[in-house]
Amino acid sequence: MKKTLKKKVEKKKIKEDEKKIVETKVIENGIERISTGIEGLDEIIEGGYPKNSVILVSGGPGTGKTLFCLQYLYNGAKNGEFGIYLTFEEEPKDLKDAAKRVGIDLEATNKVKIIKIENIVDVPQIIKILEEEIKKNDAKRLVIDSISSLEILASTFPSVGLDVSPIKLKEGYVITPQKEAIIRKFLYNLVKYLRSLKVTTILTSEAQNEKYSRSGVIEFIADGVIKLSAEAVGNVLERNLFVVKMRKTKIEGGSYRISIEKGGIRIVER
Ligand SMILES: Nc1ncnc2c1ncn2[C@@H]1O[C@H](COP(=O)(O)OP(=O)(O)OP(=O)(O)O)[C@@H](O)[C@H]1O
Ligand SMILES: [Mg+2]
Known about the structure:
The chain is of the alpha/beta class. It contains 8 helices and 14 strands. The chain has a domain at 47-228: Rossmann fold (3-Layer(aba) Sandwich).
């Protein structure tokens, strides 16, 4: 009798684990979806980000971009998917501590690797590290925080082919490539390359005036754009999330109120 009971409990546990894994593989209208890790967000975008897509999370300072990304990796890690976080500005320890403060224990999952790019100014070298780490760990989720940092590096170093020197066509005819056109090409190739790595990526960027990024280009190239904002209303800080675009997805439109508390970012109300 006792034995049967034990068996039943074990069976149930396996089922629960299976369910968890299935949950990250939601297929809606034939498109495999990757859960966002933000409570309430999957429901707005047909179950999650389309697999292998590149999503831009844009917002002003302190709007929660980093936390949004850490939650994304944590959600995957809990379900067995390895995640890589590429940072240019913050120390891995600080990121882990910040996440822990809201109850996100990245270390406990053993499936999130934070890589800080320091003293590396060569974009191809960064890409090489990224590709090696993705392959080595069979990573499914990737975060680049921020794409602005990579863009600045790319525009400073000619090794990525960002050559703005004039092109001589024939005697008397010269065209000078515009820096913006070159950045566009770099970002276009980068996004295409990220998709080829079979990971689902979140890029962060700083929103500026009407633009969602520094150069105003990546928002047109990325498959999805999510805008985070924070505004003081009286002495209350109102935080909002707006899905600007999501290819292959019907968006339950509008701006949603979000909160940051224990458990991280979650959608509170519309
Ligand atoms: N426990 C908490 N309760 C409430 N708010 C919190 C808590 N922990 C962090 N926050 C808030 O969450 C925000 C986290 O910001 P995060 O670092 O993710 O933003 P960011 O957009 O990446 O900022 P930056 O522009 O500096 O990169 C901070 O503004 C902070 O005030
Ligand atoms: Mg940040």
